[in-house]
């Protein structure tokens, strides 16, 4: 949650990534959650604070040399594996809410 609030400070409350998660009051009001913690998943927070270029967590070597023995095949070999890994991460993050984490603190 702290990282989410810091991100709002860095990018501004109008940033689309934060629109449904936090509100910011001018002056000393600070930032606060816009929803109940039970309605905010870790996936929501992840998407709000982490910039995924093109939606991909693993974004690498966009223009490999097709004549290179490794680079010429890197995407056909790794893209599926990395997409599966990202899907697994997102699935897991979607199962945990801020309320779950707050319970662990008490």
Structural account:
The protein is mostly helical. The protein has a single domain, classed as Winged helix-like DNA-binding domain superfamily/Winged helix DNA-binding domain (Arc Repressor Mutant, subunit A, Orthogonal Bundle). Helix content is 44%, strand content 8%. The chain contains 4 helices and 2 strands; from the N terminus they run αββααα. It has helices at residues 2-11, 42-49, 74-94, 98-105; strands spanning 22-25, 30-33. The protein has a two-stranded antiparallel sheet. Strand 1 (22-25) and strand 2 form a beta hairpin. Helix 1 runs parallel beside helix 2 and helix 2 (42-49) packs across helix 3. The longest helix has 21 residues, at 74-94. The two termini are 16 Å apart. GO terms for molecular function: DNA-binding transcription factor activity. This is Rrf2 family transcriptional regulator. Pfam families: Rrf2 (PF02082).
